[in-house]
Amino acid sequence: MTGTDATGATEVRGMTGSGTVDEVVDRVGTTRASAPDAVALWRECAAAAVPADRAEAEAGVRLAYRRAGLAEPERVVWAGSPREGVELVRSLRDAGASVREAVRTGPWAEERARMLAELGATGWSERWSATGQRLWATTQTLVDRVRRGVLEELAGTDRALETQVRLILLDAVLGQHDAPWLAAFPTDRAPLDGLARVSRSAGWWWPFEKAAVVCERPVALHRDEAGRLDRGDGPALAFPDGFELYAWRGMPVPAEFLRELGSLTPERIRAEENAELRRVMLEHYGYDRYLDDSGARPVHRDETGTLWRIALDGDEPVVMVEVLNSTPEPDGTTRTYWLRVPPATMTAREGVAWTFGLSAEVYTPLRET
User: What are phi and psi of 166, to 5 degrees?
Assistant: First the structure.
């Protein structure tokens, strides 16, 4: 189920549609579902922020081992997040070697080769474009952000530990975040049905000869309209064990930074040394408000508007054109608009012309609106 939080960001709290992904896929089967149906089903799977179905996930793990011609694992160990999953993998002593190659890589390669032979290069390319590619960018961005967060928390500046943690992360089967690939293949039969069953029921996991480590899904996921992690009043991604990621419109930010946004002042914004965080502060505070509260002065005026420039230490200046709408509102008032323009802009006319893709010399509006 989706909703909107107080910041206007999209919050993913569970599944949508007529039944869970498990129920719908079981009913229609990816083989028989149209490409749009498959994409919709697996998009829900990738964004699911509900507790794992542990019994179903464990059944999928055991089926995946059997499909790979392996004995089922002696035990399945659960982790509250990918962070805890990495810690558990590092602590395993009697689990045997990784069998990821047999459980995941082999079946993927087998099925891809079959689909390529069946559809041909052009047909396979079209199939991927209509299915997995539509989910790839946002899902992979989320995967990369989780990996980065785990690395930062567990390794810090320890280079040797960073290498070890990175290798463990790269060895994970991505569970629900394997959705882009699964969308492109039949998953109601061998060899991918076991992997798909886990994906529909749990998060990342690591298969070993004698044990499998399986992660819970997140309990909260907040994204903006572009699919980027985004939340102004809490973690954008949260797992049940307390592993959390904070972000503002896709940019990672510290938790304490978000708590400060509600009490910003121009002085605090100017004092921020991190240029990216300062831009977030300006965006949240409002450029026009900042100009007004900081006592900024215009650098140029003409009949098109007023040009303002905000000098920022260690960063390019913010340059904006203040434009008064010549068409009155229904109540008789006029509205002011602020247009951000390139830092090299020297006149208001040049800035307004740039927003129309024109040079100042050829910008001659008959009537400004």
Answer: -60, -45
Structure tokens at 263: 């009490």
pLDDT per residue as tens digits for the range 233-273: 899 999 999 999 999 888 898 888 888 888 888 888 888 88
How many domains, in total, are found in the chain?
2
CA nearest 207: which of 81, 111, 66?
Answer: 66
Residue 107, both tokens: 């079946």
Query: Could you tell me the two tokens for 128?
Result: 């991927």
Q: Which domain holds residue 271?
A: 266-355
**Which helix (H) or strand (E) element contains residue 75?**
strand 75-79
Measured CA to CA, the distance from residue 272 to residue 65 in angstroms comes to 52
* Alpha-carbon gap, residue 196 to 33, rounded angstroms: 15
In whole angstroms, what is the distance from residue 4 CA to residue 249 CA? 15
Has residue 23 been placed in a domain?
A: yes
Q: Which residues contact 80 (CB under 8 A, 6 or more apart)?
A: 215, 216, 239, 240, 241, 242, 243
213/293 same-domain check = no
Domain identity same for 207 and 294: no
Task: Indicate whether 86 and 155 sit together in one domain.
Answer: yes
- Among 185, 219, 238, give the residue marking a domain's end: 238
Is the C-alpha dihedral spanning 274, 277, 283, 289 positive or negative? negative
pLDDT in tens, 275-334: 788 878 888 888 878 888 877 778 999 988 999 888 877 788 888 888 877 666 666 666
